[in-house]
Each structure stands twice: as C-alpha cells, then as structure tokens.
Design brief:
six-stranded mixed beta sheet; Rossmann fold; globular; alpha/beta
C-alpha cells in the first residue's frame, strides 16, 4: 500500500455505542453523526465518557484491558468493528492526536513525520515531498523547513503537537480524532492549532474533545454534549446539533446550564 493524497473526508456515524471498563458501563447508547469535512466537538464535564467514546471510533478502546464496547461505528457506511475492515486499516483511516504531544524526541523532525507510514508498512514514493506536504498541512513547515534533521525534542510544546498532527496526516487519514489537543498549550499555540484544525477540515473529517467552551464555538461546526445523570451513571449524549444552536438556542435546559457555566 502506498501513501497518496487522493483521500476524501469520510462520514463517521455512531449508532447506540456503549462502553464498559471491567464490567462498569461508562457510555450509554451514544449515537452521533459526524459529517464529512466538518469539525464535531464533544463537550461535557470530566468523567462523562467523551474520551472513551472518541477512542471507540477507531477501536483504540480495545487497547485498554477489560474494555468492551457495543453498537456500531460506520465509516462511510462500513462498520469498523465488522469483518470488512482490518483493525490496522481502521486506525490508518481514522487517525488520532492525543492530549499530550508524543513525538519521538530523539528522532529528527522528518523522521517523526515518516514514522507513521513506515510503522504501518506503507510505501512512500517521495519521502521529501510527503514530509513537506504533511508539515504544511499541520502549519509547521515554515518553522521547521531549515531544521528537518534536528531532533524533535527541541521543538516547543505547540510545535510538537503540530508535529504529531503532521505525523497523523502522513498516512492519509479520512478522519482525525483529537483528544483535548490544546489542553497543555499556551494561548498562542492554542490559536495556531485551532487555525490548523479549521484549514484541515476541508479535506479531513475532525472530531475533537474539548473542555474549552470558547474553543468549541471557534472551531466546531457541530457540537455534542455528554452528561451523566448521577454518580456512577454512564455518560450519555443529551444534545447534538449545529454549534450555534447548541450554544445559543439549545433544546435541553441542561445544555443551556452547562454551556453557560451553571454546572459542570
């Protein structure tokens, strides 16, 4: 398999997804349509299942001992848990960027970008071109073009996060999942990442977990609110829709309370 640039944003749909850890249910029948070429934000208080739900979308949930999930996740109509897609293909087509930047600090910037395709066994016809293209899409090319052979550990935190985005993009995903990608960053770096997200969403479907209500309003086209109904209860999606509607004219009074800071 060869890395190419001819991928398109994919529709990602969750149907009645439930998740358990060692028998304890943490997400209850979450259904959500994540539209192609759009940014969907998952919001809600800590512990309500947002990150767990995110990890079910590309089967990362399965890496946790004792973790089980149910329901369907459809990538352009194909169940990612079904027999038609190998788990390696699922994680190539649905990439992930984590809360803490996790580059390989002793490898060079260029080696970090190429690590994704090479670890996945993908053929790279023109490595220099792929490095440049991936860094450009992640908004990092100008800052790194003259030091591609320098160790990635010398980059700032915000730059390292964008390098991780470039590494994820290098395998040509249709969908990019982002779990609080700006939580460890300063406001300037956060602004750069947000600009990158808005530019990427034209050709990659993006799903982002965020605790920052202003960030959700700035970057997301659609927003889904997760809440729990009591201690020990699983998280549920109580409202989902266009971001402007969720924040300014929500259908559920619990949504209005949460987005206006009255609880959570």
């Amino acid at each position: 398999m060869t890395v190419t640039d001819d991928r398109y944003p994919a529709a990602l749909v969750a149907h009645a997804v439930s998740c358990w850890f060692s028998g304890r249910k943490v997400v209850e029948r979450a259904s959500l349509e994540m539209l192609p070429g759009r940014v969907t934000a998952l919001i809600g208080p800590s512990g309500c299942g947002k990150s767990t739900f995110l990890r079910t979308l590309n089967r990362m949930h399965e890496l946790t001992p004792g973790a089980v999930s149910g329901g369907q996740v459809l990538l352009d109509g194909v169940d990612v848990y079904g027999p038609k897609l190998r788990i390696t293909d699922v994680r190539l087509r649905i990439g992930m960027v984590f809360q803490q930047p996790n580059p390989f600090p002793l490898r060079t910037i260029a080696q970090n970008v190429l690590a994704g395709p090479r670890l996945a066994g993908l053929a790279v016809g023109n490595p220099d071109q792929l490095v440049r293209r991936s860094l450009e899409r992640a908004g990092l090319w100008r800052e790194t073009r003259n030091r591609l052979n320098a160790p990635a550990g010398g980059l700032s935190g915000g730059q390292q996060q964008r390098l991780c985005i470039a590494r994820a993009l290098a395998v040509g995903p249709d969908v990019l999942l982002m779990d609080e990608p700006c939580s460890a960053l300063d406001p300037i770096s956060t602004g750069v990442i947000e600009e990158t997200i808005r530019e990427l969403c034209h050709d990659v479907t993006i799903v982002i977990v965020t605790h920052n209500m202003q960030q959700a309003q700035r970057v997301a086209d659609e927003t889904a609110l997760f809440l729990i109904e009591g201690e020990g209860a699983p998280g549920r999606i109580v409202e989902a829709g266009p971001t402007g509607q969720v924040f300014n004219d929500p259908a559920d009074p619990r949504t209005a309370d949460y987005v206006h800071g009255r609880f959570g």
